[in-house]
Amino acid sequence: MKFHASLTHLHCSLCFLKFFALAFILTLKILALAFLEPNQVVNGFEFLCSDLGDEYQQILGYYEGTYIGRLCGRSRQTTIFPINLWNMTAPVKNNMHSTNNNVEAWHRKLNCTFQHKYPKL
Questions:
Q1: CB-based contacts of 36: which residues, under 8 Å, 6+ apart?
Q2: What pTM value is reported for the model?
Q3: On the chain, which terminus has fewer CB atoms closer than 10 Å, C or N?
Q4: Strand partners, 76
């Protein structure tokens, strides 16, 4: 009886790990959409959706409604975060900074020049 119970537990653990690994891979694929050309993002998303089963439809629906735009007839609805807002193709191609780390470094250097945190002017 104990052996059967431990096999059942092992099987459940393996199923969970398999689902977790697939969800992780799906997340990476969704994140990779940010590096497609903006006019190819919808096609990339639809390709992802066609390759997945029903258990992923809830998360795919969330991404579609929030970042891609739900299909309404032949067009897509506007989203909270339009593709041109989060797409990283142009910044990567143009070697642009995607964060404000350069501003933070300047601010830190400026603070180091002063002896006090709030100097009197």
A1: 44, 87, 89
A2: 0.64
A3: C
A4: 71
